[in-house]
């Protein structure tokens, strides 16, 4: 059995990748979730079953929060909790795009202490612990040092740049890019390949928990859209959007938004 939570998550993420690759671009079964909650595939469910079985066996006292498991609230009685997205970017997975990931985290007392985001088709494994460096394939990574919006790239959906969301009637002059996986967007900020990320929609904990820690340990500031630090394993596992960026760019985004 792996000695640390991080080693456990890494081992589980690699096994998740092995399972998901078996379905990728092979016409997996697809269903629509109730309430217009989006698609789910055979791969999501197979990965979720494996992760739940393996992680619960290794840490039976940890709670469990996953996008693909009905939430019965039992996790709220646990000090430590797994927060899992079996496949983040399911639509990309369905379309045959490689920008999907497995997002695995452990929360202790509401804060993330170990995190892994793995993109198996890109052989990219991001990881962090609460007191260690953020890494990509075991090499340390750092967030961008850019300070001016006009020189920076922002990972965000086009809808987040609508003029009615910004105090000045227009967003700061970032160059906009987009990636399907929210977890990967946070990791791309951690890696410094992009300078900032912004989502203004209510965000599920399983989409952001792992990427939050990885980005913060790489030097980025990560908060909700109001500027509050994120907390996890909440009764309602959603947060009020996410801003992730180096300090000066974070301030530009936070101060420019209409609250």
TrEMBL record:
Keywords, comma-separated and alphabetical: Magnesium, Metal-binding
Superkingdom assignment: Bacteria
Pfam families per record: Inositol_P
InterPro entries recorded: Inositol_monophosphatase-like, Inositol_monophosphatase_CS
Family: Belongs to the inositol monophosphatase superfamily.
Record protein name field: 3'(2'),5'-bisphosphate nucleotidase CysQ
Organism of this sequence: Albidovulum litorale
